[in-house]
Amino acid sequence: MVDGTIRIKVERTGENTRAGLVVALMKAAPVHDTRIENYAQKIGNQAVLPTLFLGGAVWAATGSAARGISLITLDFGTGIRVSVPTAILSALTYAARQGVFIRSGRAIEMLARVDTIVFDKTGTLTQGHAEVVEICTLNRKYSDADILAIAATAEQGLTHPVAEAIVRHASENGIDLRECEDWDYLVGFGISARIDQQPVYVGSGRLMEKQTIDLSKLHRTHPEITTGGSSVVYVSTDREAIGAILYRDPPRLESKLVIDDLHREGINPFMLSGDVQPVAEAIAAELGIPPQNVYAEAFPERKVEVVKSIHDSGKTIAFVGDGINDSAALAHADVSISFASATDMARETADIVLMDDNIASLIMAIRIAKQTMDVVWQNTAIVAVPNLGAMILGVIFVLDPVLAVAINNGSAILAELNGLRPLLGPDNVPDFVKDPTILQKASVEISNTSADSAEAARSASNSSNSSNGSNGSNGTHSSKAISSNGSDRDSGEPVTFEDLRVS
């Protein structure tokens, strides 16, 4: 503004806002030490007094100070104290080279223990590139273009995949946006705005329920809204529903393979979604997630409740999400995972960031964590077994102090060298994780198959339209998404790639 007066109406401030609630939930999350558990200190502290007592007893019984000093020289903690940080730093280095940023040793330790992973749906298990597939109207007063223009005007400026899809669809079809006099983003609900001097609401069914908007007539007129497999964004005035936009956000190509691998590793996957239950369950079934592990219509608070509930049942949880709605749940999980392209709040909250935005990297992160903790325990054995064996022999026979030093230092050096193994990477990594070109080739095959199916569907639709005629005269209308080339959008049957699975 160059000249004039700006008046800002503040309805809620601080923790009373939805964003403030998310921040408050994050602050309530437990604070964890970022360091890996100090195994050397734990084992070393427990062994100090017994070692001193044993050395003193042997000295007193035999009268040989050399035999007593030999036993005291056999220290458990030194070798472990040196080798454990080496293993952790090696793992962090290898992970970074693979596009997995791990913030701390504790994240490695907890990820190796994880037996349950909770996924957010949109943008995590799905591509995050939603497409409008159908526009439903309720009366002749509002056309498809009107519904799309109102929704796009309200959603413009948001970075959510659904908002971007609606705005992009309007732009592709030359729909001019309206004048927006007022705007409010309700986290987890949708948009409240004033467009063309009329209050409008664009968002989920929960938003309509909150505003006491009756959706029954819209659902009766367009049963596909509740029975179909598409997600829905409702559009209403302050008095009545005027239409809906159906969209689909297809699963990532690698999501099914990732879920299958988690099952083989004994890790139980859960899915949280803001969609209604039928849509969420349809996506989950496609990915192989059991219906009892699906939570639909999940607010930020609800996501935190689910994470806490699963954790309280004795599970070690990882949460994977990328949105501001996921930030609180990320903070409450034992280990949190996000993407480089996630919102700032989600990315900064996460213990692990997948830098290439490929959820298949989650499998790599889990393999790295498990290999690293295996190395940590191997190093513990490499140090403890020789020193303990030498200690027993030193009680029974004469053990030269020089030999005791050699055993102690030799085991420490061997453990240190073993601690470098994570630099070589884990074994048994699935092919689709090691070689991204496999997924790229599969993506091309899916695109070609879907294009063929869509062409066949359009031909069948044109034939059906010519025989059935136009819509009825009741003023309602349901159309496929407007396409810039004049054709309807449709999708083919899902294609599976069994050859990508790794036993």
Q: TL;DR of this structure?
A:
This protein has 503 residues and is of the alpha/beta class. 50% of the residues lie in helices and 14% in strands. The protein is built from 20 helices and 14 strands.
Quick tags:
Rossmann fold; 3 domains; 503 residues; 50% helix; disordered C terminus; seven-stranded antiparallel beta sheet; elongated; seven-stranded mixed beta sheet; alpha/beta; Calcium-transporting ATPase, cytoplasmic domain N
Architecture blueprint of SSEs:
Blueprint: H1 18-27, H2 39-62, H3 65-73, H4 77-97, E1 100-102, H5 105-113, E2 116-120, H6 121-125, E3 131-137, H7 144-155, H8 161-172, E4 180-186, E5 190-195, E6 198-203, H9 205-210, H10 216-221, H11 224-227, E7 231-237, E8 241-248, H12 255-264, E9 268-272, H13 277-287, E10 294-295, H14 300-312, E11 317-320, H15 327-332, E12 335-339, H16 344-349, E13 352-354, H17 361-396, H18 401-418, H19 431-434, H20 437-468, E14 477-480
Parallel strand pairs: 2-9, 2-11, 9-10, 11-12, 12-13
Antiparallel strand pairs: 1-13, 3-8, 3-14, 4-5, 5-6, 6-7, 7-8
Helix pairs in contact: 2-3, 2-4, 3-18, 4-17, 4-18, 5-17, 7-8, 17-18
Question: Could you explain how this protein is built, in words?
Answer:
The chain is an alpha/beta fold and 503 residues long. It has 3 domains: 65-99 and 368-434, no CATH class; 100-127 and 251-355, Rossmann fold (3-Layer(aba) Sandwich), CATH 3.40.50.1000; 131-248 and 435-463 and 476-482, Calcium-transporting ATPase, cytoplasmic domain N (3-Layer(aba) Sandwich). Helices cover 50% and strands 14% of the residues. Strands 1-13-12-11-2-9-10 form a 7-stranded mixed beta sheet, with helices on both faces. A 7-stranded antiparallel beta sheet has the order 4-5-6-7-8-3-14. The protein is elongated and about 105 Å long. Residues 460-474 and 483-503 have low confidence and may be disordered.
